[in-house]
Design goal:
The chain is of the alpha+beta class. The protein has 3 domains: 20-244 and 358-412, 3-Layer(bba) Sandwich (FAD/NAD(P)-binding domain); 247-353, Succinate dehydrogenase/fumarate reductase flavoprotein, catalytic domain (Flavocytochrome C3, Chain A, domain 1, Alpha-Beta Complex); 429-521, Methane Monooxygenase Hydroxylase, Chain G, domain 1 (Up-down Bundle). It has helices at residues 29-38, 56-59, 74-84, 91-111, 144-158, 227-235, 265-268, 294-308, 321-328, 330-337, 395-412, 437-451, 458-476, 483-504; strands at 10-11, 17-25, 44-47, 64-65, 125-126, 136-137, 162-165, 169-176, 183-191, 195-206, 239-240, 245-252, 272-274, 313-316, 348-357, 360-362, 374-376, 381-382, 424-425, 526-530, 538-541. The model has no long low-confidence stretch (mean pLDDT 91).
């Protein structure tokens, strides 16, 4: 691949052009927190791919982990995060997460975020898998993401110099090479009313979330197609840890229905995972039982299904009773009720699904990538804070902490004035007829789920790479003229990189399980780095992930 923008013919001189100090791409927790940190300091535009509140953040049922209970400690939260990360966490990043996370949570409460509280008025703190202490804040039981998004959006709208563009698709990063150094200088965008336009910016923040839509089974919203990671790759930034996709163990498994997430907090309240005979799935697997880390539980469920031929397992929350479940998890109770299920009375069919992308664009601890002018935070970034497996409820915390840190870094960095430079991008349209985008997307997602899912195997990964080579010959050179086509292009790009990463890591660690390499290797305690200009990945030991 070359450094050219996505296959869109355009002349910059003919397009509308906007000039700002900073452009934030993405409207989840990380993007909103970065925009809030910048919005009173400089001219900022926040781009939302769809509606402002359509993001993985607003869908999040799980809570925000923070050691704010006097009986809890930062060291305990740090230790739990490191253990979940299976030897690949960057220790400095983890320490920043737990230290500054507690401060960010208190800031949220000061901004008016509603959280569930005890009779005493203190926050009610829940327990989730991998945590030693009750430290998870929730809102309305299972609507934490909705309330967090509301709070941050309301705060962002108060920023004096922040403009919000919703339903605006970011196609590609424009790189300026005129001063002898490559620098991110703008983004080519598309809006259904305004068409193509260029936004020039001194700094660009990628907070575009994950890529769960690469897999047939996913808890992610439809916008999670890996756009930011693909954009950064084409622009020449380094990517890291792409083999690590976390699969959530419990999403509702009803034929024809969306894979609704069933929060880990349900197991924190005592729910069990059982088979059709009522036997516990986790007996003999892990001493923590259903509260083991997500990678352990997902593999246990997948192994059980492979062994028995069953399509799902069952979540048993009947000990809570119907009224108890409705009180603790009102949103889940309403959702399940729509399928005729009462979790206080019925066993709920569940199945793992792609949930959180651990890898992404490599950054330092302040969001800087190795492409000057480009920053990343949240799920689109790879800080090393999660290692090989994210600890439950650390993701919203990560977005808050590193979104705020990116804003501080941008305010401190002395970036040159963003200015237009001429771009003439002309391409020949290949005569391949009209592509069936829905079919390509469906085939890609099915292949990723079958072969690059919870458990991987080398021969099958090689087979999928052969499929990508075929798809790339007739699809990646195609000229697309709609968001649906650009999403497919990005999914093909990121899917291939994820598969290559999974093939390169010849061990099992965290969320990455290889049936042909079941053991963890001490010599692979580090990160595979991917650069556009290099055909093979390079290597970064733990402690050296940040760009040099």
């Amino acid at each position: 691949m070359s450094d050219r923008p996505l296959l869109i013919p355009f002349r910059s001189s003919l397009l509308p052009q906007i000039f700002v100090d900073s452009l934030v791409v993405g409207s989840g927790v990380a993007g909103l927190r970065a925009a809030i940190g910048l919005g009173d300091r400089m001219d900022v535009i926040l781009l939302a791919k769809e509606a402002l509140d359509l993001s993985s953040t607003s869908w999040a049922q799980g809570g925000i982990a923070a050691a704010i209970d006097p009986r809890d400690t930062l060291e305990s939260h740090e230790a739990d995060t490191l253990e979940a990360g299976a030897g690949l966490c960057e220790p400095r990043a983890v320490r920043l997460l737990v230290e500054q996370g507690a401060r960010e949570v208190r800031q949220l409460l000061a901004w008016g975020m509603r959280v569930d509280r005890q009779a005493s008025g203190e926050p009610a703190l829940g327990l989730e898998g991998g945590h030693q202490h009750h430290r998870i804040l929730h809102s309305d039981g299972d609507a934490t993401g909705t309330e967090l998004a509301r709070c941050l959006i309301e705060r962002a709208r108060r920023a004096k110099r922040l403009r919000i563009f919703d339903r605006c698709f970011a196609l590609d990063i424009l790189v300026d090479t005129r001063r002898g150094q490559r620098r991110a200088a703008g983004v080519l965008t598309w809006h259904p009313r305004h068409g193509l336009q260029i936004i020039w910016a001194r700094s660009i923040v990628l907070a575009t979330g994950g890529c769960g839509q690469l897999w047939r089974e996913t808890s992610n919203p439809r916008v999670a197609t890996g756009d930011g990671v693909a954009m950064a790759w084409r622009a020449g930034a380094t990517l890291a840890d792409l083999e690590f996709m976390q699969f959530h163990p419990t999403t509702l498994y009803v034929a024809g229905a969306p894979r609704h997430l069933i929060s880990e907090a349900v197991r924190g309240e005592g729910a069990l995972l059982v088979d059709r005979q009522g036997r516990s799935i986790m007996d003999g697997v892990d001493a923590r039982g259903p509260l083991a880390t997500r990678d352990v539980v997902s593999r246990a469920i997948t192994s059980h299904m492979a062994r028995t031929g069953e399509s799902h397992v069952l979540l048993d929350a009947r000990s809570m009773g119907s009224e108890g479940f409705r009180t603790r998890f009102p949103g889940l109770a309403r959702m399940l009720g729509g399928f005729g299920l009462d979790a206080g009375r019925d066993l709920v069919p569940v199945h793992p699904a792609a949930h959180y992308f651990v890898g992404g664009v490599r950054t330092d601890l302040d969001g800087r990538t190795d492409l000057p002018g480009l920053y990343a935070c949240g799920e689109a970034a790879a800080t090393g804070v999660h290692g090989a497996n994210r600890l439950a409820s650390n993701s919203l915390l990560e977005g808050l902490v590193f979104g705020a840190r990116a804003a501080e870094a941008i305010a401190a960095d002395d970036a040159p004035q963003a200015g237009p430079f001429p771009i003439v991008h002309e391409i020949e349209r290949p005569d391949r007829g009209e592509l069936d985008l829905a079919d390509i997307r469906s085939s890609l997602r099915s292949a990723m789920w079958r072969n690059v899912g919870v458990e991987r195997q080398g021969t099958r990964l090689q087979d999928v790479l052969g499929m990508f080579e075929f798809w790339n010959r007739y699809a990646l050179e195609q000229v697309f003229e709609s968001p649906e086509g650009w999403e497919v292009h990005n999914m093909l790009t990121v899917g291939r990189l994820v598969t290559e990463s999974a093939l390169a890591r010849t061990e099992s660690r965290g969320t990455h399980a290889r049936s042909d390499f079941p053991d963890t290797r001490s010599d692979l305690a580090g990160h595979f780095l991917w650069r556009h200009s290099e055909p093979r990945p390079s290597w970064s030991p733990v402690g050296e992930l940040a760009p040099r």
